[in-house]
Amino acid sequence: MRIPCPLCGERDAAEFSTIGSAPPPRPAADAPTEAWHEYLHLRENPAGMHAELWQHIHGCRQWLRVMRDTRTHAVASAEACRP
Amino acid sequence: MRYSALALLRHALTGNRSWTPAWRDPAPKPAYDTIIVGGGGHGLATAHYLAKLHGITDVAVLEKGYLGSGNVGRNTTIIRSNYLLPGNTPFYEHSMKLWEGLEQDINYNAMVSQRGVLNLCHSDSQRDAYARRGNAMRLAGVDAELLDAAQVRAMVPGLNMDSVRFPVKGGLLQRRGGTVRHDAVAWGYARAADSRGVDLLQNTEVTGIRVQSGRVVGVETTRGFIGAKRVGLAVAGNTSRVAAMAGLRLPIESHVLQAFVSEAVKPMIDTVVTYGAGHLYVSQSDKGGLVFGGDIDGYNSYAQRGNLPVVHDVMECAVQLFPAMSRLRYLRQWGGIMDMSMDGSPIIDRTPIEGLFLNCGWCYGGFKATPASGWCFAHTIATGQPHALNAAFRLDRFATGAVIDEKGAGAQANLH
After folding, report:
1. DSSP code of A18?
2. Is A34 in Cβ contact with B307 (below 8 Å)?
3. Is pLDDT at B302 greater than 90 in this prediction?
4. DSSP secondary structure string for all residues of B33-90
5. Does some domain include residue A31?
6. What is the pLDDT, as a whole number, of residue B1?
7. Residue A68 falls inside a structural domain
């Protein structure tokens, strides 16, 4: 698996680490418990295109938002979280 | 048909021409009392215990491929019950006891081999943690022994005991742990369930779950609609997809876990060894191949294959622990899709939909749990209530905070 880092070019997945799904917006501090439960625990877990966060830890150390197909591991796009 | 030494001899003398299929290939009936979705180890075990212990034989097991084509044939075959937390220990110990009587129960040689599971420790603090775990196990009636370095050296020749970075300081041994021939588990349960009248429907993929006014009434399949009063899901890595057909959103992510087999060598490791300084578990099959694995790849996947970084990592651990393995070629490697839950523990429970039951979240510990998972799921489906053994494996524990987090890693699936 290779990830096209916008700064470093296409690099081997071994250079990256992932924290998993790109999370939805964080609930407000006083949001009800259900909102926090949903944010923390529940997942779409799609078989198909999946938005996720990867960090180029052995490269530019940028956090990237990666679109990847979970059925084939094909990476469709990768863009920096903070341009 | 029952298997015996006499039958083997009779068939051998008659040219093995009169063996009959081990189970039927029935056409789906329009409706069943209970449908189990997923013809893997857990689904087949559930069907067996529903029929045997609860007298519910109007059951169909729906499998999208062939029986045992998923994780029950993709694991490293290890069984153990060395758990720390009260919600887990009695359940896994029940599983171990069922393994011990499995072959008599289903009249099938599953090659249950209690060769021991040895968890190595490499530091004083890790030894303390294992002493605590061992004590917790013994308090719960599970066998555990803490070995010192000399005992480990005597038990497992070939270990890299005196590595400068990660010397082996000792280990926690569960002698009743070991390995089981994984495919035989699926075949044995399938045959046992079939002989009690359960219909095993292969190549029957569930494409929808029909719910009417909050109650499940059946499933849509590639072979048409099949009605049912109760539906149990035991679909491992596909749990999120199948549960979504009933509108459920679950605390589950699907991840790929790889396993590896080396070329066959003479007897080298006669137990199961796990590495405490990396993540590696290794045993030797009866054919002589070393069977081993490590961490999940760490990203969501439905692909049933992994990538090289984890292959690299597992090989490094293997060679660090058993330097002789550097001379082996590895024969094959494969991936299975794990249903990773948010606390690393499983879910066996009812769902908000009446008549729909859920069995998932096995992370990468599903194989050892197969008998108890089926036993508890059958109880939950038959009585509508969880058994005491799976009472902690609730679906709502994430919302209530009563999680069972053996590793203390929090709600991040790829860390469990």
Report:
1. E
2. no
3. yes
4. EEEEE--SHHHHHHHHHHHHHH----EEEE-SSSTT-SGGGSS--EE-----STTTHH
5. no
6. 60
7. yes
List domains and CATH numbers for chain B: 27-78+182-251+343-415 (3.50.50.60), 112-177+253-338 (3.30.9.10)
Which candidate from B250, B251, B300 shows the least CB-CB separation from A50? B300
Nearest CA-CA distance, residue A83 and chain B, Å: 24
Secondary structure string (H, E, C) spanning B339-395: EEECCCCCEEEECCCECEEEEECCCCCCCCCHHHHHHHHHHHHHHCCCCHHHCCCCC
Residue B3: per-residue pLDDT: 81
Residue A72 domain boundaries? 1-20+47-83
Do B398 and A20 make contact, defined as CB atoms within 8 angstroms?
no
Pairing of strands B272-275, B252-264: unpaired
Bridge-based pairing of strands B224-233 and B31-37 is parallel
Domain count, chain A: 1
Q: How far apart are CA B205 and CA B23, in angstroms?
A: 19
Please tell me the pTM assigned to this model: 0.96
Residue where the block lists tokens 């002493």: B131
Q: Is B246 helix (H, G, I), strand (E, B) or coil?
A: coil
